[in-house]
Each structure stands twice: as C-alpha cells, then as structure tokens.
C-alpha cells in the first residue's frame, strides 16, 4: 500500500518538475518548488514508515519548516518586502 | 479492531493520494498562475493532510503520531501562508491574470 502512495507522490513530483521547467514566470517556479518541498516531506514520512525507522519523521518535520522559509526567502529576494504589511502600503516597494 | 484501523488508514492514504494527483493535474493544466496557486494549495493542505492522517492511524498512540500531528499542524499553517505570500509577490510583480479564456461573455 505504501508503494502505491509513494508512486503517486513520485508522479506528483514529476508533474511539479514539469511545471518548474515550463513555468513562464518566476512565481510559477517558486510555486513548483514549494509543491515539491511538501511532497518530499510526505515521501520522507512514508519512507520512514516503509523501512520501519521512526527517525525519518524528524527529518520530515524539519523539512516542512525549511521549505516554508525557503519559499518566503526566494520571494523576499525577488520582491523586497514581499508578504509583509509594509509592502501592502501603497507605493512602497514598487518596481 | 485493528482491521478497522488498517482499512481506515488505507482509505485515508488512498484519498490523500487521489487529492495529490488532482492537485498535480491542476498545477499542470491550469491556464494561468493564479489558478495554479489554487491547485497547489489544494494539493498541499488536503492531499498532505489526508496522507498524514492515514499515517497517524498506522502509528497508533505513540511518539510517531505526535510528530505526525506536529507536521500536520505546521502544514495547515504554513501552506496557505506561503501561497498567500506568493500571490502577493506576484501581484506586486505586476503578473497579469488571464481574465477571459477568449470566450466572449
């Protein structure tokens, strides 16, 4: 059963890669990276269950946070002040 | 009793897998960025949530389930937040949304 779910996750990661390669704008690629990050978390958790090693869940837990922070970091690099209340004020951070 | 748990966890896992596929299909086929945002957030929150719920049922009452609960909890918060930040950055980056799929109203 875990084989079925992990193969579905691999297919979803492949689709994410296709979107990352084809994505017209930068934000599509960041979107694909975020999606692949979450799917990797699931993959690691399921591998931990398949091989019977509960330590994998710590890796998956840390990776949830890292993938979130990395998405925000990439956005912050491209748009300074993205996602903060400062940028929603009119006229700040305009490119 | 454990047969019920096994069936429940496998149905959760399969349901999560189905939603992952739907989300992945949405990310591939949707016409423009803002619609793909929706597909990813469906895929992230619901697909991952169901898969984690299925794993929790497999884990039973142990430290494994506590970690899975923490992961589920973080995902429920960080998924939508990341998608929101992405949308705001895209809006700020003047990314135009495809409004009419060339069908006159």
Q: Helices and strands in order, then pairings?
A:
The complex is a heterodimer of chains A (95) and B (105).
Chain A lengths: L1 H21 L3 H25 L5 H23 L6 H4 L7
Helix pairs in contact in A: 1-2, 2-3
Chain B lengths: L1 H28 L3 H27 L3 H30 L13
Helix pairs in contact in B: 1-2, 2-3
Description:
The complex is a heterodimer of chains A (95) and B (105). With 95 residues, chain A is mainly α. Chain A is built from 4 helices and no strands. Helix content of chain B is 81%, strand content 0%. The radius of gyration of chain B is 18 Å and the shape is elongated. Chain B is an all-alpha fold and 105 residues long. Chain B has one domain. At the A-B interface, α1, α2 and α3 of A face α1, α2 and α3 of B.
Spell out the key features of this protein:
heterodimer; A: 95 residues; mainly alpha; 77% helix; B: 105 residues; 0% strand
Structural class of chain B: mainly alpha
Measured by residues with Cβ under 8 Å of the partner chain's Cβ, the largest interface is: A-B, 49 and 49 residues
Overall structural domain count of chain A: 1
Major beta sheet summary of chain B = none
Largest sheet of chain A, in brief, is: none
Number of strands of chain A: 0
* Average pLDDT of chain A: 84
Q: Note the gap between the termini of chain B.
A: 56 Å
How confident is the prediction overall: mean pLDDT of chain B?
Answer: 86
Looking at the structure, what is the overall shape of chain B? elongated
The total beta strand count of chain B reads 0
- The helicity of chain B comes to over 70%
Element-by-element helix/strand order of chain B: HHH
- The tally of helices of chain B reads 3
Radius of gyration of chain B: 18 Å
Question: What would you report as the Rg of chain A, rounded to the nearest angstrom?
Answer: 17 Å
Low-confidence stretches of chain A: none
Provide the succession of SSEs of chain A. Answer: HHHH
Low-confidence stretches of chain B: none
Number of helical stretches of at least 4 residues of chain A: 4
